[in-house]
Amino acid sequence: MSPDGAHGRAVRTGIVVVSHSARLADGVVEVAAQMAPDVVLRAAGGTDEGGIGTSFTKVEEAVLELLGAGEVVVLTDLGSATMTAESVLEMLDDDDRERVTLADGPLVEGTVAGAVAAQGGADAAAVARTAAAAAASFAHAGEAPPPEPADGGRTVVLTLRNSVGLHARPAALLARLASRYDAEVSVNDVDATSVLALMGLGLGQGEELRVRADGPDADDALAEITKVVEDGFGEE
Amino acid sequence: MSAATLGTAWALDWIARATKVVSENRIELIELDRAIGDGDHGENMDRGFTAVAAKLAGAEPASPGEVLKTVATTLMSTVGGAAGPLYGTAFLRAAKGADGDLDAAGVATMLEAALEGIRARGKADTGEKTMVDAWTPAAVAAREAAEAGAGAVQAIRAAADAAVEGSEATIPMIATKGRASYLGERSAGHRDPGAQSSALLLVAAAEAAEAAGAGA
């Protein structure tokens, strides 16, 4: 059971990473798995002979395996990887195809952001949307217009304790916590459910997090986030 | 021997001839692809059709559509690069478009379905120096032949001749899709390897039809 388990919605979407390179697909899965421990991720990289290219068979097997457990989102790297994935979708039975979504978006950032969304219980369509938005959230992190003024909700100011700053793993943990509650949560005016936006803040040890939450579960969300931040995300 | 339609025996002969012609032209396709792509098209196509031949050797398909579906699934799994999903989709849609034995209108419908699949999968249009530049005139020619009252054999022959011309017409084009587009204007002066392999396949289809002696 993950630390999210107690309150978290069940994970129902798996992710297939399709790349021309087996090592690239494996690496992307490795990174995303760090941030979304309960999401089933499958790498489908390289040709059947282990060369550079994509394999219909590898993609099909990965998709069918994950369909056994729920919905599936497929992310791809370059042109023919997308064509191979589309071909696999075209060959699926209608019932299966309805549960598979091909996501636009950058492979690494999209997979990471999508996996964190899936960890929070998002369905395939929502995971795919998150993946597609990943490029924009990276490009605009830090210059995003602040959300609506804090007319509602409560804000707590916390100090980041962990020595390596708000890097990928703690950012993903924070995003998962934020997405678990029925509340709009922001950190330093960025959407706290977006792992990429949180990483884009580039916060280091000793810097402040202004965490604002608005909604029915705002108090619970702030209490748990406070606990986790003060605990240094369990990294020390 | 003289039938008005093209059936399962024709489809099997087509694919046997296609396998042979792809193998014979493997080097030419490699060289065309080396000029404007990554040089593996001939190798990939040869590997794919060799696998197709092995798959069909043990099968007893009941219709042209069944033959084409086996070709589709095998090519998707064995041809690397963009050609795998593109030809796989072409044969898959052709299989769905082939309703029993084919008369001239059936040939046109099958080719139109294949063309539509290639266009959808590759998101390419005519004039972009791709397979589409062979398949589009082929489908148009087959439809025109059918509407002019030609038989199935003449329709597939018209399609093959149009595909050969279409392949030829890619030589001066500047690629705007696929890997060749990275070359920009330097892609002009070379025949598109995908258009050329498409022409070879459709000529094989016409030769199989003529060999069967199917009447008009």
Give the overall pLDDT of chain B as a whole number: 93
Q: Can you say what the CATH homologous superfamily of chain B is?
A: DhaL domain
What's the CATH topology label of chain B? Serine Threonine Protein Phosphatase 5, Tetratricopeptide repeat
What oligomeric state is this? heterodimer
Q: Structural class, from secondary structure content of chain B?
A: mainly alpha
- Give the CA-CA distance, first to last residue of chain A: 21 Å
Largest sheet of chain A: 4 strands, parallel
For the largest interface, the chains and their residue counts are: A-B, 16 and 17 residues
What CATH architecture of the largest domain in chain A would you give?
3-Layer(aba) Sandwich
Q: Would you report the number of β strands of chain B?
A: 0
Compute the CA-based radius of gyration of chain A: 18 Å
Q: Strand order of the main beta sheet of chain A, please? A: 2-1-3-4
Q: What is the class of the largest domain in chain A in the CATH system?
A: Alpha Beta
